[in-house]
Amino acid sequence: MKDMMVKHLIGIILIFLGSIFAVQAQLAVISSQDGYANVRAEGNNKAKVIDKLDKFTVILFDEEFMHEKKNADWIPVQYIDQKNRNNLGNGNIDLKAGYLHKSQFKIMDALPSANPQEFKFLVETQTFNISNKKIEYYPQSQSPVKINGQFYFGGDCGLPKTEVKSMRAMFNKKNIQVPMNYIWGILHANKNYEAKKFDGHYFVKQEIGDGGCFSFLVWEFSDTGLQQRFVGWNY
Description:
Elements: H1 2-21, E1 25-30, E2 36-40, E3 49-54, E4 58-62, H2 63-68, E5 74-79, H3 82-86, E6 96-101, E7 105-107, E8 119-127, E9 135-137, E10 144-147, E11 150-151, E12 162-171, E13 174-177, E14 194-198, E15 201-208, E16 215-222, E17 225-232
Antiparallel strand pairs: 1-4, 1-7, 2-3, 4-5, 5-6, 8-12, 9-10, 10-11, 12-13, 14-15, 15-16, 16-17
């Protein structure tokens, strides 16, 4: 219980520090033609390789750094390691940090939009119903930490007023339902979305929460199904 309280306080402190320094992060996708990209401990090609990220992995990059240092080749990034990425990032996964060469990723906003005639993402919402959920709270707090066993992103802002009832992607004669295990933690996801396409994969970008509780939410789909769920914040 004590550990949970400490983690909760750390989360609040990080949100506060983030608002002070206002480091703006944006979404990107690993695009390396080698099939993977090396993450290094420092911003040079002699630095230690600390991780390898598969192609199509969603990351966050430091937009402010990239804007201020236009000639820099190595960009600070944050990411979910491959083990948790392949598990669809199910839970409160701490983002790891390192440097990537700018040639190894594509900025998500710059990717071509998916043709709405060939790809659809349907989100059904309803009024939040607390009666059919098991909710765990941080000790001595009204902030939810888990809903139906899954870490709830944005718990510091309380329970949502509306909730996602279902999500599914339709493309190439496929109808892919997002399992509820990946929805309990992001029940407050915005119904609006942007869909991007890259090398036959579709990336659906949503938002969850606002202000200090804001996070990016990205789903990756391919012909073999749901590949990735990424949750990350923009500071």
